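Weekly structure sync - notes
Attendees: PM, LS, DV (DV joined late)
Agenda: review two folding runs queued last week.

Item 1: First target. Sequence and C-alpha cells pasted below for the record.
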Amino acid sequence: MPEPYRTDATLPLVWTVKDAVLAVDAATGELRWRHDVRGVVRKLLPVGDHVALVLRDALEIVDLATGEVSCAMDVPFPITAAIVTLGGIVAAGPEGAISVGLDGDVRWSVTQRCRGSKHSLVMEDGFGEEGWTEAVAGSMDRHVPGLLHEGHVAQPDIAE
C-alpha cells in the first residue's frame, strides 16, 4: 500500500535540528544519515537529487540519498533570500548576491561597494573578472533585498 504522505518512498524525510540535518526513512523511521552543520540552517531547498542548506553566511549542498556533501562554501555576506535555479542556487543578502552550481563553482556574483557616500553594484563572473559596475542611490544600512532571477522570487521576512 502506498504511503499517503510520500510520493517517492526512496527519498528520505529531511529536517533540521540544532547544529544538524537529519534524513530519515519515511516508512521505517530509520536514520539514513546525519550531517552536522555550524550554526542554524535557515532554509532547506530541494535541488534535484540534492538538498541545499542555507546558513547565515554559508551554503552547503548535500546528496539526498547518501548525505555526502558536494559543495560547502562560505559566502561573504549574510544570506536573507535564496532560490533554486537550473543546476544550482542563487543567494542574496544586504551586501550582494551569488550564483553557485551544485559542484560549488561560482557562476557569478554581485556585491555592493561603498566609497565615501557613493554606492555601486559590481558584477563579477565565476573567475572574479568584473563584468559591470552600476551606481545606486539609497542607504545600505537596513537594506534587505528580495531576489527575482529566471522567473523565481525569494523575499525575506522583514522585521519592522
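Item 2: Second target, run right after the first with the same settings.
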Amino acid sequence: MFRADHSLALADFGISRRVSESLDLTTTTGTLGTPGYISPEQALGTPVDHRTDLYSAGIIFYELLTGRKPFRAESPAGLVYQHIHSTPPALPAAVALAQPIIDMLLAKDPEARFGSAEELLDSLEEWLAGPAWRALSPPQAYLSAVNDA
C-alpha cells in the first residue's frame, strides 16, 4: 500500500473483516491491529512512526525464515504481552546469521530499530551476499536446513 507521498506502508488487511467475526484482533486506545504483528508501542497506545512498520516487517521476516511467528500465546492479550516484554526466540542455525537483523527489527524500543526501510534493505543485501546464504542454494537446501532445526 502506498501513502499520498508515494512511500510504502504495511497494511493489516486482517482488520478488514468484521471485528465480531474474529477474536484475533485487538484494540488499544482506538488502535486496531492483529496481535501477531502489533508493535510494542502500538500495543501500549504510545505514539507510533515508520518504525512500527519495521517491527511488523520483522515479524513477517521471522515467519519467512522459520515458518512460524516468533510469539505464540493462548489469548490475544497474552500475545500482546509477549510483544511488549519477550525476546524473540533464536533463529535456527541455518539462518542464524540473520539474527542481528531480526533483533534490530523486533527491538522493543523503536530507537533501537533500523532508522529506515533503506537501512534494513542495506543489511538484507549484505546478508544475502554473504557466504552463509549462498551455501544454502538452491532453495530446497534452505528449506531442508530450516525444517531440520
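Discussion on item 2: Confidence is low (pLDDT under 50) at residues 13-23, 25-30.
Action: LS to circulate a short write-up before next sync.
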